[in-house]
Amino acid sequence: DTEVTQTPKHLVMGMTNKKSLKCEQHMGHRAMYWYKQKAKKPPELMFVYSYEKLSINESVPSRFSPECPNSSLLNLHLHALQPEDSALYLCASSLRQYNQPQHFGDGTRLSIL
Amino acid sequence: AQSVTQPDIHITVSEGASLELRCNYSYGATPYLFWYVQSPGQGLQLLLKYFSGDTLVQGIKGFEAEFKRSQSSFNLRKPSVHWSDAAEYFCAVEYGTISNFGNEKLTFGTGTRLTIIP
């Protein structure tokens, strides 16, 4: 069982909808990440939160809006998405310390109609 | 910029046979190396990691990997594969130092899809 929990597992939305993806971990990790993964491709980093502050934004379009309300929770707010945004969205977390890897959730499969 | 190359897009192996998946990383002073596995529709599971020390690293599910700095490689091996090993395998690299860990940019290779035949 993964220790990083993502909800929902699947999401279908229209291009005018607003929805949110949620990620939660209770391992005391202080860094949390959002990745986007297209079919048959590796994950691509979108955002990094370190100690609840946004530390990396990989030039992601503004229709994706991350939020880190506390050290255990990470949200990704979605608005006016495009069909090419359909993908698997993965959340990860880490202790942000030497010898500590990132731990991934099972992802949210997002489909844009 | 850091990069990872996985030369084999797809590998087919008979059940019970040995396996080696190749991974090469771009030069960096202190690479931290990882192998992750992804089953269809699932997230990524960490198989093993290398930060320092013994260059032969043992992981979960009977996997091991060897870090060879001279060849910039971190190949994954398993002596006898099981049908449940069929999945996508990603090698990843991150750079940093012990005192300044937190580069936080994990770069993935393009992945190798492993198929197991009976």
Which terms summarize this structure?
heterodimer, A: 113 residues, mainly beta, seven-stranded mixed beta sheet, four-stranded antiparallel beta sheet, 11 strands, 0% helix, globular, B: 118 residues, six-stranded mixed beta sheet, 12 strands
Low-confidence stretches of chain A: none
- Rounded to the nearest angstrom, the distance between the terminal CA atoms of chain B is 41 Å
Please give the radius of gyration of chain A in angstroms: 13 Å
Biggest sheet descriptor of chain B = 6 strands, mixed
Tally of separate helices of chain A: 0
Shape of chain A: globular
Q: Could you list the spans of chain B in which at least 5 consecutive residues all have pLDDT below 50?
A: none
The succession of helices and strands of chain A, N to C, reads EEEEEEEEEEE
Radius of gyration of CA atoms of chain B, rounded to a whole number: 14 Å
Interface with most residues: A-B, 29 and 22 residues
Mean pLDDT score of chain B, rounded?
A: 90
Strand content of chain A: over 45%
Number of strands of chain A: 11
Task: Tell me the number of helical segments of chain B per DSSP (H or I, 4 or more residues long).
Answer: 0
Taken from the alpha-carbon principal axes, the silhouette of chain B is: globular
- Structural class of chain B, by secondary structure, is mainly beta
Order of helix and strand elements from N to C terminus of chain B: EEEEEEEEEEEE
Counted beta strands of chain B: 12
Descriptive overview:
The complex is a heterodimer of chains A (113) and B (118). Chain A is an all-beta fold and 113 residues long. In chain A, 0% of the residues lie in helices and 57% in strands. In chain A, the strands form two sheets. In chain A, strands 2, 4, 5, 6, 9, 10 and 11 form a seven-stranded mixed beta sheet that branches. A four-stranded antiparallel beta sheet of chain A has the order 1-3-8-7, with no helix packed on it. The N and C termini of chain A lie far apart (31 Å). By secondary structure, chain B is mainly β. Chain B has strands at residues 4-5, 10-14, 19-21, 24-25, 31-38, 44-50, 56-58, 64-68, 73-78, 87-95, 107-108, 112-117. The radius of gyration of chain B is 14 Å and the shape is globular.
